[in-house]
Design brief:
265 residues; mainly alpha; 12 helices; 76% helix; 0% strand
């Protein structure tokens, strides 16, 4: 009897936890379909006019294009830098390998405001200043740990005998990487790239430091809009961002399989 009450209490806790996590998101989605000109819940009626408002407000479109370009660019650069580093560090026996790995992962534990503030001063000192290039470099710094962590985690679990067998059969380093290593670490690359893209696309603290007429990202424009407007357009835009994340996960699951990506964790 006592065990039953414990199980019921645990089940109730899980249900309340999910309600606590999902309720704010569901309310934002519902508010995005309101017919009222202000944010309120429950909504008085249904309308899709706030989604049309997104495409009528040109700063949203321009910022969305910048955000997509930055997210794709930062993800690609993170892969180009992070994959070779992960392959070396994951199996390195050098005493400094752990220190380098910790350094590469350090942006995960540092406040974003500190990274943005320090990057602004450092890149300005280098002459890059507030520009698309500076924003891309800083986002790459933030995205790099996701690639390094997932690829190194997968590669460390792969037996060396696979690559040694390829080498014994005559494959050189490049062929071994292309035909043996790359297919095996692909779950880590896919998982890291997905986290990297979503982290960059939703980033506000760092993007805020590098905001200008040409480099404003979508979160920065949304914050500026909220300071002067109180209509549900931001709720509609948040719903579209949520839909984008869900569609991305569904496509990855359909094409590759989420279960394979979880191996990277």
């Amino acid at each position: 009897m006592k065990r039953d009450w414990i199980n019921i209490a645990l089940a109730a806790f899980v249900v309340l936890f999910f309600v606590f996590m999902l309720a704010p998101i569901l309310i934002v989605v519902l508010v995005s379909f309101t017919s009222a000109g202000y944010v309120s819940f429950p909504i008085p009626g249904w309308s899709t006019k706030w989604f049309a408002r997104i495409f009528e407000y040109q700063p949203f479109i321009d910022a969305m294009i910048v955000s997509i370009q930055i997210a794709i660019g930062a993800t690609v650069l993170s892969c180009l830098i992070g994959i070779p580093a992960s392959l070396y560090l994951a199996r390195s026996r050098s005493a400094w390998a752990n220190a380098v790995m910790t350094f590469l992962l350090s942006p995960l534990s540092m406040p974003m405001i500190v990274i943005g503030f320090a990057s602004l001063f450092f890149l300005s000192w280098l002459g890059v200043g507030i520009s698309f290039t500076a924003l891309l470099i800083t986002h790459t710094v933030v995205c790099l740990p996701y690639i390094v962590r997932t690829v190194a985690g997968v590669y460390a679990g792969i037996p060396r005998s696979y690559e040694e067998a390829a080498a014994i059969l005559g494959a050189n380093t490049l062929l071994t990487f292309w035909h043996v290593t790359l297919p095996l670490i692909r779950p880590g690359i896919m998982a890291g790239s997905l986290f990297s893209f979503l982290t960059s696309f939703d980033n506000l603290p760092i993007s805020y430091f590098f905001g200008s007429a040409d480099t404003n990202t979508l979160p920065v424009v949304m914050l500026s809009y909220l300071e002067n407007q109180f209509d549900p357009t931001i709720a509609a835009l948040s719903t579209l961002q949520l839909l984008l994340a869900v569609v991305a996960l569904l496509i990855v699951d359909r094409v590759y399989g989420i279960d394979k990506m979880t191996v990277a964790g």
